[in-house]
Amino acid sequence: MGRLKSRDLWRMALRSLFLQATFNYERQQGLGWAWALQPALERLYSDPAEVCERLAEHTAYFNTQPTLASLALGAVAALEEGRAAGEGPDAAAVTRIKGVLGSSLAALGDRLFWFTLRPFAALLGVLVALGGSWLGAVALWVCYNIFHLGVRFLGVGWGYRVGTAVLDLAQRRRFERLTGTISLLGTMLTGVTTAWLLVPGGQPRPLVFQAVFVAGLGLGLVAAARPRPSPTEWALGVGALCVAAAWFR
Fold first, then answer.
1. Which has the least CB within 10 A, 31, 66, 219, 228?
2. Cα separation of 212 and 155, whole Å?
3. Which tens digits make up the pLDDT trace of 161-174?
4. Cβ(34)–Cβ(64) under 8 Å?
5. 200-243 residue pLDDT tens
6. Is residue 76 a contact partner of residue 162, using CB atoms and an 8 Å limit?
7. Which residues lie across from 28 on neighbouring strands?
8. Angle between the 69-84 and 91-109 helix axes, to the nearest 10 degrees?
9. Helix%, strand%, coil% for the chain, nearest 5
């Protein structure tokens, strides 16, 4: 039917927000992936039966870091465009490329978003909240979502323009530099937040408070080394630390 249009890419980006809405242990993000790719397939194929066939292919197993999935969506949409014109790879090759993109983006995205950006945004929010402002939660939300939603909405177009080169050496180095920069800034925020908690206004906290704080911080660092601490474990740990800190304040 023709090339993809900007509105098709935007529709895919919007649908990518629901990538994990049908997450399951058999296909994981597969159903959400096919639904997000559907606007591109409907643009590229005029025969409804062919659209259904391509959708069925894309409901197979797929899993990656949800935010960076937008890059894979754009790249695979470009492959499907070539395939519809009779110039692209066959179904088996598209499946292989999709799998490689998914695993590679998962490795980059987990480090960037889960282990670097999310703690950095949380520290920024805590630091603002320590000043007595309710804007701490807003600062956390804005800091994280500037990156998260930016990649979600712009990543599809980026992946579509560059295709499978979205993960070439130059792009990987950009991701690595960004991760390193945010990690460095997060380390600095950790030091500032720790100093603020231990010596507020230049007056040191009681020794018991300092001991409880250091113990809680140490346990948190040990827990953070695990690949996926559950939200429940984090909530219980932070809650217990706050109760203990308030008790010995």
1. 228
2. 43
3. 998 888 888 888 88
4. no
5. 877 888 887 777 777 777 777 676 666 666 666 666 777 776 77
6. no
7. 24, 62
8. 160
9. 80, 0, 20
